[in-house]
Amino acid sequence: MEAKANGPSVNAGRVMDGPTNPMVTPLLTDLYQFTMAYAYWKAGKHNDRAVFDLYFRKNPFGGEFTVFAGLEECIKLIANFKLTEEEISFICETLPGSCEEGFVKYLRNIDCSDVEVYAISEGTVVFPKVPLLRVEGPVAVVQLLETPVLNLVNFASLVATNAARHRLVAGKSKMLLEFGLRRAQGPDGAISASKYCYIGGFDATSNVAAGRLFGIPLRGTHSHAFVSSFMSPDEILERSLHRSDGSSTCEDFVSLVQSWLSKIQWSKALGNTVGETNQSELAAFTSYALAFPNNFLALVDTYDVMRSGVPNFCAVALALNDLGYKSVGIRLDSGDLAYLSGEARKIFQIIEKEFGLPGFGKTSITASNDLNEETLDALNKQGHEVDCYGIGTYLVTCYAQAALGCVFKLVEINNQPRIKLSEDVSKVSIPCKKRCYRLYGREGYSLVDIMTGENEPCPKVGERILCRHPFNESKRAYVVPQRVEELLKCYWPGKSGKVREEFPALKDIRDHCIKQLEQMRPDHIRRLNPTPYKVSVSAKLYDFIHFLWLNEAPVGELQ
What residues have CB less than 8 Å from 559, skipping those under 6 apart? Predict the structure, then answer.
């Protein structure tokens, strides 16, 4: 299944389709956004030109990187931001006191035609304090966007980061399947998780709805219930199976399976270790193979993995091989995954040698059963033969951390820079409209992100630039970049006339994310004790931050 393009489309006069979830409307916001809009309107300030930055303060999961996701859904919301008469009536009934008719007329005319959005590309590895989105426009309108935009970015970026962390631990060669639908926080949590886990590096999902909506490859076979629903091979009524090339038909595939099981049981190479297997399980495997001869993957732990599940699988796989089909493999959903995968691999290799079946020793082994980062890391340390992981609960619920904590802060209004102060320095905002760059070193790794004032010259390749910590005067360094990448691009130009960036296909966003992680220095993305990535400001912006800080902070008086 090919991943679909998820960019804008023209539909019945609309600029692009609306958000994936129809519940994402202008009312998906906090009440105080509408109370502020009314107060702005009463004060005549509602059209003041404001600039807001959306960013986060700390990387999740104890790591030192985050994957930015959710941008496309934000732009879809902005492109279709319009209140219905019914919604306006509800707002007016909900606001404290009475709503003036002038405000009602104002609400009828609200849209985002005068809003501009600049953002980092979706799937990019990002860091604290650097704006993921910069939203410019009439202050009342942009304020109404705050809550829904935060909602769309927070979980998306968190789960994409979680997926990327699992990918880093599993390694490039392993297949990762997202199996979290049944444990996710509701339908939207499940759909969002499937999409953003794919962006973060997973290969496929079990979620059929997500497969249809986004073109994500689908994977899935059968459950324990399917295996235990069979009582004996006598239940299989349709026993014939055509050869893969259609040249002939095996009239009794069940008997062919039984003959192969007998050969396995008498195999000297296996040391006569295979005894009687569970016949109801064999019936289930045989039935499934008859239904899906090209995609036979068996869940082997319903009764006993090594005494029954694996031998039964091998018997069916060998029978399929006789007819020109190649089985996919087995899935382990319980027990000691390192040990069982190793023992299963040994049997596959012995059968390959014993019966002359090239490639059978490399039959795929999938593992599931409440896997998480720690489990994958432990399996790596123990040694295992797992080729593919099916991961659900800990992945889609982001069990290790509940939220990312993005914030949406005013940094400029009517061309006047604004700053938010706090006794906690990490909560002090970086004022004014900014440009953001990523500077790369000789080895191709990114060295530092730097924010500059909007009108400052762009850092140049080969020219030394002073990078300063925004708040700690002793932390500074000169950098001579070998490559400079500007991070913020125009994704919604409003009335500015600027060219709008198009959204790539979902698979291209995924590829971008994987490439981004490859461009990070390994110590920044390692699981244990990662090195913090440097986020800096230019010398000129540093001076301005501290000038504004001193200017806005009240001076105390000792008595």
Answer: none
End-to-end CA distance of the chain: 74
Q: Is the dihedral of CA 260, 261, 266, 269 positive or negative?
A: positive
Give the pairing of strands 66-67 and 125-126: antiparallel
365 φ, ψ to 5°? Answer: -120, 120
Q: Check: CB of residue 71 under 8 Å from CB of residue 113.
A: no
CB burial of residue 116 (10 Å; 0-12, 13-18, 19+): buried
| CB 285 within 8 Å of CB 311 | no
Tally of residues, the chain: 559
- Sign of the Cα torsion 535, 541, 546, 551 reads negative
- In this predicted model, what pLDDT tens digit does every residue of 290-323 receive, in sequence order? 999 999 999 999 999 999 999 999 999 999 999 9
CB 142 within 8 A of CB 115: yes
Residue 172 tokens, joined:
């490039």
Closest to 23 (Cα-Cα) out of 189, 193, 136, 184: 189
How far apart, in whole angstroms, are the C-alpha atoms of residue 405 and residue 155?
9
Mean pLDDT of the region 280-296: 97
Cβ-contact 27, 89 below 8 angstroms: no
Model confidence pTM above 0.70 = yes
